[in-house]
Design goal:
Blueprint: H1 7-35, H2 44-49, H3 51-64, E1 67-72, E2 78-83, E3 90-96, E4 105-107, E5 109-111, E6 117-119, E7 129-136, E8 139-146
Antiparallel strand pairs: 1-2, 2-6, 3-4, 3-7, 5-6, 7-8
């Protein structure tokens, strides 16, 4: 003799179904918010007001005509070769992982005899975003590289 399908059975099916949906939603929402490494901009309206200034800065940087090549060496140090800026130019850099986690690391450079720059610090293997800022007097050149 087959069992009867009662209201309790239907209640159990609905609770199990919607409970599963809610559990998946909460899990995915938690994972999305806990793995985001930072914010793109704090206030999008304020950022939009600066957009034209950013375009002008980018065009001024292009007009400098500097050529910069950065290479991550096997020993974990970053080598940056710059063609165009004077010998008085200085280089700053900040390295961070793309998805956050660790705090960004400031990198300092020593100037080699051939005019290139070599970091004093080493970076362990993994994915890195490195923001470079080359300054020569009032001229500033910026770029972000992935290694």
């Amino acid at each position: 003799m087959p069992r009867k399908f009662t209201g309790y059975h239907m209640t159990a099916i609905l609770v199990a179904f919607f409970g599963t949906v809610a559990a998946v939603n909460f899990t995915m929402a938690h994972r999305a918010t806990s793995t985001f490494g930072g914010m793109v901009v704090e206030n999008s309206y304020v950022a939009s007001q600066n957009f034209n200034d950013w375009l002008e800065d980018a065009e001024a940087q292009e007009q400098l005509g500097w050529e910069v090549v950065s290479t991550w060496r096997e020993d974990g140090r970053l080598l940056v070769q710059a063609i165009g800026p004077s010998e008085a130019a200085s280089l700053r850099a900040e390295a961070r992982h793309p998805l956050g986690g660790d705090d960004p690391r400031s990198l300092s450079f020593e100037r080699l005899q051939d005019g290139s720059f070599l970091t004093r610090e080493t970076l362990e293997s993994g994915r890195w975003l490195v923001r470079l800022e080359l300054t020569d007097g009032a001229d500033i050149w910026r770029r972000e590289d992935q290694f």
